[in-house]
Amino acid sequence: MDEIDVPPFFLCPISLQIMKDPVTVPTGITYDRESIEKWLFSGKNETCPVTKQVLKDSQDLTPNHTLRRLIQAWCTMNASFGIERIPTPKPPISKTQIQKLIREAKSPQSQIKCLRKLRSIAAESETNKRCLEAAGAAEFLASLIIINNNNFASFEAFEVDDLNSARISDEALSILFNLQLSESVLKNLIGKNGDFIESLLIIMKSGSYESRAYAVMLLKSMFEVADPMRMISLRIEFFVELVQVLHDQISNQATKSTLQMLIQLSPWGRNRVKAVESGAVSVLIQILLDNTDRRICEMTLAVLDLLCGCAEGRAELLRHSAGLAIVSKKIMRVSLVGSEKAVRILLSISKFSATSAVLQEMLQLGVVAKLCLVLQVDCGSKTKERAREILKLHARTWRNSSCVPSHLLSFYPA
């Protein structure tokens, strides 16, 4: 490739590689299909990368057969330079073909066969994923999950049908998550009278680790577009299963999705109390003790900050023997965001739960010394203000304590 000049119009403007499947968008610019699909669908962009014009129909990608044939001929002519001829791409699947496939999936065996075909179709291209969505595949997959989890929940003893139901549900859930559904379809799934969310709850409770991870990651996407009333009405059992996913540490991705969901849900209604009653605080503290991933620590502190906004959350944090210690330890150990959240937690404790025993514990654990240290380093102006506020609140108890090193006491705010 270094010994030959490639005609510039053979190169995709996005990847700068020779195009394998050139397609032209409505603005007249030609891109490689894989690159422009990734730009439009995975990146959720709506503009032409070159002209910056809005593309009204992001699925309007016209195959440029003439250019593809030119590229193929050029590759053949230059085979001696090590250039391989690009194969003729398969045409995208049609909406009619997908609908026919779905209609024929009646029995468990035909459903399993259909799911394998749908997975293969989705894996081929982003266009196929959007075509699957337009053909109603998401609704079909969701219905399989609902029906088969209802069957699974109703079986009194293990049967062959039980195994088939779990198999169909797991496969449908995996495909559904990987379709990277649009906002409108996610909202439609939420609106299924709560049946789909209940089915995902069953999977979170008794599914395989992989299916539980898919369930929680799909739920995160759904709640990002959910109506507030849906978030307020969640039962405590939902939070119990979220906390169990955190406890089991299925994967970093599942943990991050669960933490993000708790951040989304906690401000609404009594969700903070429900999360606390589900044992969230002790599990979050354990994550801080065990996990060194920066983003996970930041999100864990963010959830703890939200939960400490209620009396029950603060009480659970103080009840845990490592609660105050690990929150204090994470200051200046994670990131500026982590330090900010940790100091916010300590401010909540200092304002609303500061008994004499708690104040003495904060002294003995070195929390007060850490707050004095915050005033000396670059931790962000808001974090410094909150640290200063905490120290001023309890200056009478802490200011002259021997537990604070003398070189730090000089920084104690007046």
List the helices and strands and how they pair.
Blueprint: E1 22-24, E2 30-32, H1 33-42, E3 62-63, H2 65-77, H3 95-103, H4 108-124, H5 126-134, H6 137-154, H7 160-178, H8 183-190, H9 195-206, H10 209-224, H11 228-232, H12 236-248, H13 252-265, H14 271-277, H15 280-290, H16 294-307, H17 311-319, H18 323-329, H19 336-352, H20 356-364, H21 367-374, H22 381-393, H23 395-398, H24 406-409
Antiparallel strand pairs: 1-2, 1-3
Residues in β-strands, percent: under 5%
Count of alpha and pi helical runs: 24
Please give the number of β-strands.
3
Topology pattern, helix = H, strand = E? EEHEHHHHHHHHHHHHHHHHHHHHHHH
Instruction: Give the radius of gyration.
Output: 28 Å
Whole-number mean pLDDT: 90
Gist?
The protein is mostly helical.
Q: What does this entry look like structurally?
A:
The protein has 414 residues and is mostly helical. It is built from 24 helices and 3 strands. Strands 2-1-3 form a 3-stranded antiparallel sheet. A hairpin with a 5-residue loop joins strand 1 and strand 2. The chain is globular and about 85 Å long. The model is unreliable at 154-158 (pLDDT under 50).
